[in-house]
Amino acid sequence: MIQGFKEFIMRGNVIDLAVAVVIGAAFTAVVTAIVTGIFNPLIAAIFNSEDLAQALVLPLPGGGGLAFGLVLAAIINFLLIAAVVYFVFVMPINKMKEAQERRRNGGVLPVADAAAASAAASELDLLVEIRDLLAASTAKDPRHTL
Length: 146
Hints:
The protein is mainly alpha-helical. The protein has helices at residues 2-10, 12-46, 68-104, 114-140, and strands spanning 57-59, 65-67. Strands 1-2 form a two-stranded antiparallel ribbon. Helix 2 crosses helix 3. The longest helix is centred in the middle third of the chain and has 37 residues, at 68-104. 5% of the residues are buried. Channel that opens in response to stretch forces in the membrane lipid bilayer. May participate in the regulation of osmotic pressure changes within the cell. Keywords: Cell membrane, Ion channel, Ion transport, Membrane, Transmembrane, Transmembrane helix, Transport. This is Large-conductance mechanosensitive channel. It is a multi-pass membrane protein. It comes from Leifsonia kafniensis.
């Protein structure tokens, strides 16, 4: 049981996930500070309010109110986090995967169909094997040159 737990913890994806959670938490603090310190005051100034959370409040009968400014601040925060995650993490990783796939396919453009991609990969493997066999036969019998 202990060995199984140790193997589970030492898997690369568990460690990667732990790192992602820690980085995500730290990154959320940075984005929240940017939203709170820059965007909220700018938007609040448009609505003549001290804070975005206090802007766009629709009073309700009997007290209290609906804080649309607070919701707007959360939406801005979400959009900023999503944009940074996409442009800093997702897009570069996708570009790297595309480049690896191009190298793997010998410079051929990526194939959209998975079956066609595996057929192209097996075709490449077959060509490499033929090349190696020809090279081996040429080395054994110098009369057969290419």
